[in-house]
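Re: the 455-residue chain
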Amino acid sequence: MHKFIQEILAFIGQTPIRDESLIRFTFKLEKVEIERLFELLSNEETLFFFSKPSGNRANLGVGKIESPFTEKLIETISKGNLEPNELIISANYDSSLMSKIPLVFGGEKFLPDKKENLWSDYPNQSWFIPQVLIASGIENTLIIFQFVGNNPNLKIFEKILDLLPLDTLVKTESATDYEILSATELEEWSRIINAGLDEITKHNIEKIVLARRMQLVLKSNFSISSFLSKLQTKYPECITFAYKENDSIFFGSTPEKLFTLDGNKIETEALAGSIARGANLNEDLVLESNLLNNQKDINEHNNVLSFLLSNLEDFSEKISYNPKPQIKKLQNIQHLQTPIKAMLKEGVDILELLRKLHPTPAVCGLPQKKAWELIEDLEYFDRGLYAGVVGWFNEKRKCEFSVGIRSAILKNNMLTAYAGCGIVEGSDPISEYHETELKFKPILSLLENEIINQP
């Protein structure tokens, strides 16, 4: 029997435990490549991977604790009503050292599904506490085993411990062959865009964000850990995520932060308006200048900024930002970006704030409700978690929520990728089509050097 298991059993045998308490055991390991663990645990119903390579941190939640108590606990944590050591017991580790460790993982869809069952493995809103959490930092990894009351599920913990160390395991390779089944082509795209522009001309809406979808069949072996590794290498400033429920994995590498929270300090950003990267430094700077001086992109960006500022006013004070946008550069695209900082008022519910700020005009449009309804009418597919929210929060009033763009859902051997762009007065269907091609690249680049079999 592993010494970690022995320690847990000894604690249970010697310590009175309330039924309504979450017990956490924390153990240190050498640094672990947790994206490989994600693959090796892929027969588990629920997995959640969340990583920011530039911050040298990655987290993996395995399984979920399902009980009325945890549902109540998540609600209590979101509202900030949890007293120290009241409901969460850190059995063998200083809880103050875990202030940046996630407790609750999950996500929320862009809209409830109505058109297809592709996203049926995911609820509209899902927030859960995992049975096991692996948190990887610069030098080492923490593995945290969690259970309610006197009821530990030791099997899942033993399974993970048996998989370590990972260096004894054989790595698998990514897909080598795929076939494009379907995609939103230019003719259909132009029809949808022009319908949106008609509504803008009639002054029914100011902006709408419309999306394309591409479906591929992976025809040979693929490796989700390889996908995640490639995304982290290519997009270190982005959040790379993967959320598995049953037979589906929603994954991607998103540049768009919804908001982060540290105590009462909130940070968010307006991220809208984009252009390609240049082939060399001079070309890149010319494109950057074009973006900074393009009135259409500036207007689109300012719409997002105004939306965030007006909605933050109800929840916060001391809002600060630079009125002149900066440039956020990714490997194949650059965006207008305005970071925003503020101080939250006392008693703000984290999930209530999330639902107030999402969806932003960067993924929906303006006015929000009318744009939402028009998206539902014009797009022939459900977005599911695409352009929804993924992230985590904990009992220390820390959270990190991202918008689920530059993403795809992998279900069995079918990969469905999404890419969208903002439509305002003056938008051109062909230009917007090319912009979505750029935004497909983070996902499609995972299959580089592979054979493409067009139908």
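The chain has a mean pLDDT of 89.
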